[in-house]
Amino acid sequence: MDIAVRTITAIVDIYYWLILIYILMSWLPNARESKFGEIIGKFVEPYLAPFRRFIPPIFGMIDISPIIALFALRYAAMGLIAILSSILT
Fold first, then answer.
1. Which of 40, 62, 37, 43 is nearest to 52 (CA)?
2. What is the mean pLDDT of residues 47-69?
3. What's the predicted TM-score (pTM) here?
4. Which of 42, 62, 68, 78 has CA atoms 20 to 30 A from the CA of 26?
C-alpha cells in the first residue's frame, strides 16, 4: 500500500508543479508559445479548461481558476489516498 500512496503522491506532485510552471509562464512574454510552453500546455490545459469554463476572471483580467484547480487536485489526491488506504488495509 505504501508504494501506491507514494506513486500517487509523486504523480500529483509532478502535475502540481507543471501547473504552477504553466501559470508562471503567463507572466513572461511569449513563454507559453515556446516549444516548452506548448508541451506543458498539452498536459495542463485539458485539466484547467473545465475550471476556466465555470470560474470567470476577476475584474476581467485576473484568472483565479488555476488556483482553484490546484486546490482541487490536492483534495482529489488526498481523497484517492484515503480510499486506497481503506481498501488495502
1. 62
2. 88
3. 0.86
4. 78
Given its phi and psi angles, is residue 20 left (phi above 0), alpha (psi -120 to 50 degrees) or beta? alpha
Over residues 67-84, the pLDDT tens digits come to: 999 999 999 999 999 998
Q: Which three cell numbers stand for residue 21?
A: 510552471
- Asked if 6 and 21 count as a contact pair (C-beta separation under 8 A), the reply is no
Q: What single letter denotes the amino acid at residue 65?
A: S
Bridge partner list, 62: 58
Dist CA 14 CA 79 (whole Å): 18
Instruction: Name the one residue in this structure whose C-alpha cell is 489526491.
Output: 77
Q: Which residue shows C-alpha cell 490536492? A: 74
